[in-house]
Amino acid sequence: MIRYLRMFRAFASTEFQFEMEYRGNFYLGILEMFLVIGTSIAAVLVMFGHTTTMNGWTLPQMIVLLGVYYLIQGGVSLVFAPSFERLMEHVRAGTLDFHLLKPVNVQFLVSTRHLKIVRLADLVLGLIVVIVGLFQVGEQIGGGQALLFSASIFFGWMLVYSLILSLVTLAFWFVRVENLLAIFWAFTEAGRFPVDVYPLWLRVSLSTIVPIGIAVTAPANVIAGRMDWIGVVLLGAGTVLAVGIASALWRWGLRSYTGASA
Amino acid sequence: MIRIYRQLLVAQIQAAAQYRIQAVLWMLFSIIRPVIFLAAWTAVSNAQGGSIGTYTTSDFAAYYIALTIVGHLTTAWNSFEFEFEIRQGRLSPKLLRPLHPLHYAVVENLIWKATTFVPLLVVCALVAASFHVEWHGEWWHLALFVPSIVLAAALAFMIAWVIATATFWLQRINTVNTLFQRVGFMFAGQIAPLALVPTWMQIVSYSLPFAYFLAIPAEILRGGVTLERGLLYLVGQAVWLALMIVAFRFAWRAGLREFSAVGA
Fold it and tell me: B175 and A31: CB-CB below 8 Å?
């Protein structure tokens, strides 16, 4: 475990050095994030100019939800998205061989090898938005609730992770899956509103096919006091199951990998 | 010119036919955001007893379905593609040809829209059914919509090209693109119909070009404007289009002087 953490730190520091080669781009990336989050908050404010509640969600709760959305998205696009992007290239070019030869868990390596450090900005800004929302909610958030919140954020990341891993694993059979992934990213946009505002057919697909609905709404629900520890435990159990299925699929897919020259 | 276009059309149809599924998948991008905001406004409207201002819940549905169709027909991706073309050195051979690179893009753009339009309408019909759309337009709204959407598509296309020319000076235009997209998000009528945003946002929206290729044609298609207002909107669209064409000509000429081909 410690070995893997140390490895992850090494990945992060090399990627940080890479990114710092293009410092201007790095700062512009942060600026873009300010723009994106600022305009998203403006959108929510425009809506709440006409109402005080949306399906039982108040404005402060919506702000928390929006922060959670960027936390989840930021975490995924910080580590998993860039790593899997490379993985798809490796599968296509056959260069996954080099990863397979290394004496580590291959799934860990392909899931975490590459980072997009600038996405840390999403995490930081998302967290700030959550905290601002919390102050507006006005109720005291106890230590227990904070713990449940952190746990549900972590489960959210892993839920989305297991879905992307499954999608990327399809590359072993179909080679080109970038478009599938692009569709997934488009769907994640739906996470900016609570999943219960959507009509049933969309809610089902957002919660099961694209678990972004659960991943974002659950932590916000914890803050809103609508989800207790039983809900979080259930969420955890579901997440373990999802990661288990995705990992099994990954191992199965890996057997179909034919390598560079085979 | 017509003969050239006919040849280009044939060639591009053949090229596009190789990526049919991809074309349909990209169509989903046109649908997702409007549906998300439609769902949110439906929730808000229901919380307020079924209407906000002059918009009933089914008016919202009509507006966002219209917005989906307009958004799809005004898609232009050249500001994203152009940077790539320059970096890969693909612009130089295009410049040597007797035809302006713009014309290839026009044909490519039209074909994508033509091939994905029917699947789009099918999806829109499904969404419309699940959100109980009602259309309150007159026949002349549809007649007005035809020139309006043509102007809108041309305007969006020219704006994309004006942004694209920034690559001549900046090399990477990610941030420029994001900036324009987010300003468009705020002021083009995606967040809400323009009548429902705060006054200062309305003023900005009507003075920037973005609403003229999104919210305005959508309002016309929905049947939410009077005839006088609709005609006025058409004039606004035409003025913006003319401005953008002039801006593009200047920017392109000045940009080419800056341009040093990659690998040259």
Answer: yes
